[in-house]
Amino acid sequence: MNANVDPNANANADAQMVYCRACGRQIHVSAANCPGCGARQIAAGESERLLLPAFLLCIFFGYLGAHRFYAGKIGTGILMLLTVGGFGIWVVVDLILLLSGSFTDMEGKRLKRWL
Ligand SMILES: [Zn+2]
């Protein structure tokens, strides 16, 4: 009998904990810095992916959807590839989104950091 085990409660508890990117120690998701090694942590809702490579890919290979592949958006990346960057319009829209910090990865997290 597992009457006392609430799978949802466990899932919620796990969702509050993340691993430090530097030392791998388990820390709370809201921690700005790791208590163990002091490394800066990625904020919730902020993508691990960086703006600079996405921006450069968009400028030089945006018509191939390269920046969308970088962001893990494979589906729209292929669509962009097939339409040659949405006939040039979609690439410009994505460039504006990147510059305004509104471009998101496949998890819906915004790309915020340039380096
Ligand atoms: Zn750490």
Task: Give a written overview of the molecule.
The chain has helices at residues 7-15, 51-61, 66-70, 74-82, 84-87, 89-99, and strands spanning 17-19, 26-28. A hairpin with a 6-residue loop joins strand 1 and strand 2. It has 2 domains: 1-41, no CATH class; 51-99, no CATH class. The relative contact order is 0.14. The longest helix is centred in the middle third of the chain and has 11 residues, at 51-61. It has 115 residues and is mostly helical. It has a two-stranded antiparallel ribbon. The chain starts with 6 loop residues before the first helix and ends in a 16-residue tail after the last helix.
Summarize the helices and strands and which ones pair or pack:
Elements: H1 7-15, E1 17-19, E2 26-28, H2 51-61, H3 66-70, H4 74-82, H5 84-87, H6 89-99
Antiparallel strand pairs: 1-2
Helix pairs in contact: 2-6
The structure holds zinc ion (ZN).
Unreliable sequence segments: none
Mean pLDDT: 89
Largest sheet: 2 strands, antiparallel
Topology as a string of helices (H) and strands (E): HEEHHHHH
Percent helix, as a range, is: 40-55%
Work out the strand percent: 5-15%
Q: What attributes characterize this protein structure?
A:
mainly alpha; 2 domains; two-stranded antiparallel ribbon; 6 helices; binds zinc ion
How would you sum up this structure in a few lines?
The chain is 43% helix and 5% strand. It has 115 residues and is mostly helical. The N and C termini lie far apart (51 Å).
